[in-house]
Amino acid sequence: MTAALTAIGEGESIRHTSSRFGIPRSTLQDCLKSGNTLAALLRQKPVLSRNAEKELVAEIIQRTGKKENKKQEQQTRIKVRNYQKARLVKRVLVEDGLTQNVICNDSKMAKTVSRETGDVSSSDEESEAEVNKEVCLVCDKFGKNEIWLTRHAQMRSRKIMFVTIVNEEAISAPSNCG
Q1: pLDDT of residue 144
Q2: Which residues form a coiled coil (predicted)?
Q3: DSSP H helical ranges for the chain
Q4: At CA 163, angle to CA 178 and CA 136, rounded to 5?
Q5: For position 168, what pLDDT does the model report?
Q6: What is the mean pLDDT of each run of 10 residues along the chain (178 residues)?
């Protein structure tokens, strides 16, 4: 859409632009009449670059085993954008009332950002290894202020990361825990 609006701004006719980009003329005319043509679109910054988005779209299409056509490609792009929204930095309320930034990613354990320095925790790989071992939360391997992040659900056949904060004091120890 932005490329079509840019082409119209450079002097192309609406009829030629609509046939070139496959966008209906009425849609282009409505966008031009609204006045907010490119400003609203440029405010939204994507998480992935265009090349990374194209690679992800191609990978999803290849995994599903469906033929590439324009409609399915567009639906896949929408799914990729929803995936990008799920990966954005989330603010999590910690038990002391302050907020903490958490960067969600594909792994079971998300990266935590320090409140004091704003740096990403360097022990994420070790934490992910501990998550894969399924360590007991009540044992002394995690302190009181650690945030435990788990993959909580799959919703509408898409992987979405939910952030869950588990407070150690609220969990009772299992009988076999030392």
Answers
A1: 33
A2: none
A3: 2-9, 14-21, 25-34, 39-43, 50-64, 70-86, 124-132
A4: 10
A5: 37
A6: 80 87 86 62 58 76 62 69 56 50 44 49 50 43 37 35 37 43
**Among candidates 4, 7, 50, 37, which has minimal Cα distance to 23?**
4
CB-CB contact of 4 with 23 (8 Å): yes
Q: Alpha-carbon distance 129 to 131, whole Å?
A: 5
- End-to-end CA distance of the chain: give it in Å, rounded: 60
Burial 125-145 (b: 16+ CB within 10 A, else e): eebeeebeeeeebeeeebeee
Token representation of residue 66 = 């469906």
Instruction: Give the whole-angstrom CA distance, residue 23 versus residue 31.
Output: 11
CA atoms within 13 A on the CB side of 44: 10
